[in-house]
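Write out the 3D structure for:
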Amino acid sequence: MNLSNLPKLNLPKPKVLIPGQSYSFSNYFSLSFSPEDILADLGCTLERQRLVLPHYDGVLPCYEFLSNYLERNLTHVNPISEIARREVMVAPTLLEICSQVDARLNIEYPIVVNDWLRGNLDYYLAATENLLVIEAKQSDLGKGFTQLAVELIAIDQWTDLDVPDLYGAVTTGEIWKFGKFCRSERKVIEDRNLYRIPNELEELLQILVAILVGS
């Protein structure tokens, strides 16, 4: 039997979010459903591919400082917990980025769109040309990206910023994974690339700055 000739069944996506129940962003990290099914309930799709992310080609004074900072301080501390990684690795990096591009860094920033799109963003960076959402996790980048995707969907409905794409990243401090929400297509793209710190610190900074300055 030639299975390729059989008709394809267009089965509906299963509903996984319960009507009338409230979900915070952190709840999505704990859900065992596939991210595709979760996003389908939010009217969006998910793709995984290698993203061509913007890169900043100018001088980055923060690179030398951060490189020295990480080299020096990570010999004295082993940031095991999520809180420790935020304080030692993530927050210093984002503060230097904000200084570079004159952006505002908001920590544990609350937003409410509806019962399914609500909660606190670990880090919300707002610049004149664009914005960036960062979700810090201890280890599970997969579930962390599901939470990030939902946060980008929420930001799409919350912000007045007129840009075609919204960017975010989930990080353990040592590893960064980016995502993009294509607003007109209502599609989240999960980057298959990973950026490792400190070896790829300069490239990471070039991406973060380029997103915020809109290049």
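Residues 122 and 168 are 11 Å apart (CA to CA).
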